[in-house]
Amino acid sequence: MSGTGGFREYRKFLVALIVMALLSPLGLYLPRILKAGSAWGEWGVDEIREMVGYEPQGMKKTAEVWKAPMPDYAIPGQENAPLPRLSLFYILSGFLGILLCGGGTWLLGRWLAGKRKVRQPWR
């Protein structure tokens, strides 16, 4: 980073992330408007059974291994809340994901930079 200020060179990237988080509720509204059903690839065992007529055994075995901290991108118990409230949860999920991924990447970068500290005679 240059000496002009920490996030200046990442400003466009950060603005794009914020815009994407704010637009994430479109994933709630568009399938309902277009009568498209569930988001592609986010099916549970029950939905797969309805679509193909059986439950794949591997999927059935591993379906309960991971419990999402925010199931359906909502606070537990609020999965069937009204759309405006779900929209807020989608946006919060987006920001939480950005913070966790960005923070984890920053921490990893700091850790790796600390491991590579080499004496540089020109500094």
Question: Can you describe what's shown?
Answer:
The chain is an all-alpha fold. The protein has a domain of 46 residues. The chain is built from five helices and no strands. The model has no long low-confidence stretch (mean pLDDT 86).
Tally of contiguous helical segments: 5
Measured by DSSP, the beta-strand proportion falls in: under 5%
Unreliable residue stretches:
none
* Bulk shape: extended
What composes the largest sheet? none
Which structural class best describes the helix and strand composition?
mainly alpha
Distance between the termini: 16 Å
Q: Radius of gyration, rounded?
A: 21 Å
How many strand segments? 0
Average of per-residue pLDDT values? 86
Level of helix content?
55-70%
Element order: H for helix, E for strand: HHHHH
